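Thread: Newbie trying to understand structure tokens

Hi all, I'm a second-year student working on a class project, and my supervisor (Dr. K.) asked me to get a predicted structure for one chain before our next meeting. I've only ever worked with sequences, so writing a 3D structure as a token string is new to me. If someone could post the tokens and maybe explain what I'm looking at, I'd be very grateful. Here's the chain:
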Amino acid sequence: MAISREAHTVKQFDVQLANLRNMVLEMGGLVEDQIKGAIAALDQEDANAAREVIARDRIINGLQIKADEDCVSIIALRQPLGGDLRMIMSLANSVTDLERIGDSAKKIARMTLQMYEGETSQPSAKLLRDVRPMAELASGMLRDCLDALARLDVEKALSIIHNDTELDQEFQSALRRLITYMMEDPRTIGHAINVVFIIKALERIGDHCTNIAEHIVYLVEGKNIQQRRNIDMNTILTLAQDEAESEAKG
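---
Reply by user tm_fold:
Sure, no problem. This is what the structure looks like when written as tokens:
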């Protein structure tokens, strides 16, 4: 059953729901800025900008806490049912995914610090060749997510879910190239592993955008279409490093 956004008898309830949704959209805008800031710091080899991204993550964490508290308060006070409850739960789940996207931006900033702060060698352009295209895909997915949430647009939400496949494929291709680079030149292992963490962070942003899109579909249509995916990053990195070191010895 699709959601109906009729006004409530208690007008304050409508105000609380609107404020909650606006807070989530505000948080989404800040997270979007964090991704842009993290990628810009990487592109410009700017350690200070990377540190600023890391520091700003506290603001996003604070908004998550406030949104969670508001959700609990509304549920306790209003005891919502049906579409109203779906609205609150979907927004609460979206807040969790937005906070994790913020964590991914912070991860990219931390990898930037590792590569450019105090290092005698810097990563070559070929190691970073896949970062910008993946960042554009991930940023576009988040932008579309926020637009779909603002408009309660199920069609756009479904297109986001479909588009995640493209980002997953880009990640797999980039990972294969990085493993090849490490095998060809073991001296690149340190920087290459940092780049692996960066592209993995971007791939995870796509996954969280997909989650948010699924929350939107549930909010509007009442249909649970959640998908879950899990890639063991430690296994990937261990195999990559072992292969590169084995090739070097051989």
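A couple of things are worth pointing out once you decode it. Residues 82-116 form the longest helix (35 residues). Residues 11-249 form a domain with the Methane Monooxygenase Hydroxylase; Chain G, domain 1 fold (CATH 1.20.58.220). Feel free to ask follow-ups in this thread.
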